[in-house]
Amino acid sequence: PIDTIGPCAPSLTIKNLCNTENFAITGFANQLIWNNPNNSCANDVVSFNVYYAATGEAPFELIGALNDTVFIHSQSNSISGCYSIAAVDSYANEGSKSNVVCIENCPIYDLPNVFTPNEDEKNDLFHPILPVRFVDRIDIRIFDQWGTLVYQTTDPFIGWDGRDMSSGKDVLAGTYYYVCDVLTNGNAKALPALSGYIHVFR
């Protein structure tokens, strides 16, 4: 008789820069790792099909076929998406898909509380603490102690040089208050609005 039954399903895990410390692969990549059912519940697995869906509601698409148990999936600016693996036997029967693993982007955006715009080429611009990750744009508004708006931008890297955006003059040394909305990209966890104080030293 001809074998028409596919192998049992592998078990899938995923490593990336969001869930693995010192992740060695650069860029936006997921490292898929799974077991070979030949070592447990099958004996003629010859390859594996790798499936990907952009979201949990989207249909799965085949993105790879290989005989290894490790697959690197790279994207241009995101690591989000859902994955599943299916084993294929020597009769080309595809087995049941593995567990589905869905990945979210993990945005990072933090702001310092001090900068020194005194043209000494050290900390002359107010910008976020690096790294910045999975952030499309922001809306930051910086106010003086009287509540007057002195600076606003949607650029995630800000680059405020300590000048009033209306007059072009240097703001006085002192304490300024900011509110900042952060818009993340792709399937990313939402970040709460930021607010706090900036101490300007000259």
How is this structure best summarized?
The protein is mainly beta and 202 residues long. The protein has strands at residues 12-15, 28-34, 45-53, 61-66, 70-75, 81-89, 94-97, 101-103, 108-110, 114-115, 129-133, 135-143, 149-153, 174-184, 194-200.
Tell me the span between the first and last alpha carbons.
85 Å
Order of helical and strand elements: EEEEEEEEEEEEEEE
Low-confidence stretches: none
The name CATH uses for the topology of the largest domain is Immunoglobulin-like
What is the CATH architecture annotation of the largest domain?
Sandwich
What structural class do helix, strand and pairing data support?
mainly beta
CATH class of the largest domain: Mainly Beta
Give a written overview of the molecule:
- The termini are far apart.
- The strands form four sheets. Strands 3, 4, 6, 7 and 8 form a five-stranded antiparallel beta sheet that branches. A five-stranded mixed beta sheet has the order 10-15-14-12-13, with no helix packed on it. Strands 1-2-5 form a three-stranded antiparallel beta sheet, with no helix packed on it.
- The chain has strands at residues 12-15, 28-34, 45-53, 61-66, 70-75, 81-89, 94-97, 101-103, 108-110, 114-115, 129-133, 135-143, 149-153, 174-184, 194-200.
- By secondary structure, it is mainly β.
- It folds into two domains: 12-103, Immunoglobulin-like; 108-200, Immunoglobulin-like (Sandwich).
- It is rod-shaped and about 85 Å long.
- The mean pLDDT is 94.
